[in-house]
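Below is the data:
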Amino acid sequence: MPLHSLTLLLLCTLSFSLSRAVASIHMAAPSSSSSCSVIVTPSTPLVSFLERLQETALQTFGDSNFDPKTYVDLPLKFTLSETHQAFQNLPRLSSNGTVSVEVLKRFIHNYFEGAGDDLVYWQPRDFVAEPEGFLTKVKHPEVRDWALKVHSLWRNLSRKVSIEVEKNPQLHTLLHLANPVVIPGSRFREVYYWDSYWVIRGLLVSKMHKTATAIVMNLVSLIEKYGFVLNGARQYYTNRSQPPLLSAMIYEIYRSTGDIELVKRCLPALLKEHAFWNSDIHRVTIVDAQGHSHNLNRYQAMWNKPRPESSTMDKKAASKFLNISEKQHFYRDIASAAESGWDFSTRWMRDPPDYSTLATTSVVPVDLNAYLLGMELNIAFFAKAIGDRTTTKRFTELSDVRKKAINSVFWSANKKQWLDYWLNNGTCEVTQVWEAKHQNKSVFASNFVPLWMEPFYSDDSLVGSVVHALKTSGLIRAAGIATSLTDSGQQWDFPNGWAPLQHMLVEGLVKSGSKEARSLAEEIAIKWIRSNYVSFKKTGVMHEKLDVEKCGEYGGGGEYTPQTGFGWSNGVVLALLEEFGWPQDRSIDC
């Protein structure tokens, strides 16, 4: 064996061993693991090589319509050693050392399969063109016809990981999953964590319970292997998670099917996921004005380098930092914003809209802690359903403690909403004393996410105040709820509206049982459904995000072109139509 091949083999073996070791110690992160010193998940030789290819492609092809993710998604046709050697041997232009367009195109064609070719189309076995009992409250013929088209998109988005990934995992950044998947669409070729919740909500409307359950079991398998649900099913996503909604997915499936065996199968994984989110990696302690300590959580990726899927962009964004440790901290904050799902937003910036002031790990987010409250309530519910009294008691107590922490640290009596909390700048201390000035007074849709959780939507006196605050917040626009009130050019800011935010706020309002809240919920739902319908009618596709200022217009901004497909958009439209229907005499056009 040539020396370089032997070295590469040893590196691959070491990297794999390290990645498994990291998975095993996530639950026992050292107490010093603050924003200044945390575990960093090792990369793999394949990902590192594909990052080099990505950089070369940018130099060769230019940045017009350049998507860096494409290059880290390419499956290899030959071994990494052979591919790397061929890459090293490519003729370089003497003027600047770059590779010519023709040479690089030929190399990519000869040595790689297409991005996404390691997933194959899958016909879901529980799909039927018009399920029995489908959207019985939708009486308008045009809306019903459109809803059936949205329902049919599950076939377009269903995939199964190719057998080649299981046989030769060293040639793919895609991770093997045993069950079929539903992808978001477009550049998002793999399964994603929090997207899957709203995909499942739509699948349940479509009576596709087996497909929904398969998605859950894939996510459970990631916990069993890595200790948490990855951001997505790629090697380069093993350094972070996404908003923890697995327990909510299981709850919705159980509520729809009564499948107690699913609950029994998944509960150990949920306990492991809860431990991950409450380890030193994510936990902070805030001491309130009365001297009471509250444990809460933040996003913090186990990473301090450019994200492989956006490596060239991250390096450019970090170029203003001269100090290596500053660059590493900035890279961690970028990856942590991706862990939040809100990549990117002024919500994470100390000096918005200056992207270089991104400081995600210094924010204790309202919505993350609401999701964790939901997880604790769901675990208590599941444990009670299977007769596990000890776990029921423990997680009921944990949820009570978290509710108090959310009220103490985030609630603003003046604004009648929950506000993100900023940690002190430039400190590694994970225990800090609460100060009112550290609440983020800016308005974001996330300020109202706690209303999605039972302890808050069931509080009648609270609901009235929050409904008034939402009505007067400025977030409710012509075509739905805006993500923020700041037009920064980032995609998780004004004027974009996102399906998950519409759904969480609408469902929280509905579950409150308040007539005023339900009326507001229906008003928001009508706007959102109408805008989705008109944009679909104009373009023939469902969009990832919409412009809430203009009915029927899709959103923009951010680091990639607007995407279509689209998993969670489809799921939310179907869920809202199931809840509210659409009468025959209500116009569907803008």
The first strand starts at residue 119 and ends at 121. DSSP finds 20 helices and 14 strands in the chain. Residues 67 and 166 are 27 Å apart (CA to CA). The first helix runs from residue 3 to 25.
